[in-house]
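Suppose a colleague, Dr. K., hands you the sequence of a protein chain of 60 amino acids and asks what its three-dimensional shape might be. Before reaching for any lab equipment, you can write down a predicted structure in token form. Begin with the sequence itself:
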Amino acid sequence: GIGLIVGISIDKPCEEIVEKALENKILIGKAGNDTLRFEPPLIVEKEHIDRLIEFLDSAL
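The predicted structure, expressed as tokens, is then:
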């Protein structure tokens, strides 16, 4: 299928980041111990991506 699924490897376990994201009403998955998984809907809007980037800047 067509979609926007992407994974980002990070240099630390991602469990804490996934939990913090959920507390901030941001849904991030994980694939393995050190990969964040993003699966936004095809109708995602720029402001949603901007919010995610701001969160990741502060969390990483």
